[in-house]
Structure formats: C-alpha cells, structure tokens
Automatic annotation (TrEMBL):
Source species of the chain: Sphaerobolus stellatus (strain SS14)
SMART domains associated with the record: FBOX
TM stretches of this protein: none
Protein name according to UniProt: F-box domain-containing protein
Signal peptide: none
Alphabetized InterPro entries for the sequence: F-box-like_dom_sf, F-box_dom
Taxonomic classification: Eukaryota, Fungi, Dikarya, Basidiomycota, Agaricomycotina
CDD domains: F-box_SF (cd09917)
Domain of life from the UniProt record: Eukaryota
Entries under Pfam families matching the protein: F-box-like
Domain F-box, residue spans: 14-60
Amino acid sequence: MSNHKRKRGQNSPNDESVTLPEEILHLILSNLNFKDLVTCCLVCLLFNDLVRESKAIQYISELEIAGLVDGGSASTLSASDRLNELLVVQHNWTYLKFRSTHTVRRPNNSLWELFGGVLAFGRSEWSDGPTTGISFIQLPSQVRGQLEPRRWEHKNLGVNRIRDFGMDPSQDLVVLIIMRTEPESVMSGI
C-alpha cells in the first residue's frame, strides 16, 4: 500500500488538472462503472485515495463485479453496512453456507416457478383437477428485512387449464399459458 497521503483539499504541485472539491470528485466517481473507476485509480493518486476510502464506491464496485444491482432506497443500511452484507452474502454463496433454510411443501400440482425471491405453484380446485389458480410465497430475506415467508393466492383466475406460467415480480407481471378447451376440428377428405 502506498505511503502517499495527501491532506484533504490539496492537490500535488504537478497536478493542475484536479481543481474540483473532493465532494464533487466523490460524486463523479460514484457514478462511474467499475472499469472506469480502475482507470481513474491508475491515472491519479487523489482519485485512487478517494475510491479506496469510500465505502459507497467500494459497494458499487463490488455489486458490479458480482453482476448484481442495488435494491434501491428501501434499505436503511449505510454504505459500509451494505458493503459488509454483500461480502458476507458472496462468501456464503461461494461456500454454500446459508444463514437459514426454509422448507416449503409443494402441492400436488406440477406447475411451479421461482423468480425474484417469489416461489409460485399452480393450484387446482380439486384433486387432480385442471390448474385454475396460483399460490405465491415470497421467500424470507434478511437483506429485505423480511424474516418470515409472505403467502397469498388466487384460487381461480377465471381461466381453465393453465398449462404453464411465468412471472417477474419486479414488474408486477404474470403470464399464463392456457390449453385450448375446444377439441381440434377434424377434417375429412372426399
């Protein structure tokens, strides 16, 4: 690690290009992607110091390296706490060491989908009947501050014979694939 330590607000005598206040530089750096941040760190010692000292910028960089996206403003955690939480989650996924496990009983229906932390199952109104509804379970997440599963269901969506479905909870979207209920017409040749 470099022994170079610059007093806040001072640029080196040969560094005439950096005359903006550090708060502005920090704001600019926090909007760069990881590749550009690495380039900035190589170009200027002040930029390197700002990036290395900022937990917010480190968090943004670690998210991008992991291929993740920030969950938005719902989190009450500081940037430092978010960075630490991200590093714990990455470690736990690397070694498949989870904080908790939850068992979910699957109904006798073969349709299911897992997307965005929501597990959904097709449901029938009677045993071995056609799928006419969907049950949802939002799985617990310490990151979201939700420690218990949240459940809801739509027993009958007003359609018969759901063959398959897809969903994206982040877009409030469910797509149903429905089997045709009328028989195929039979053509006879003369």
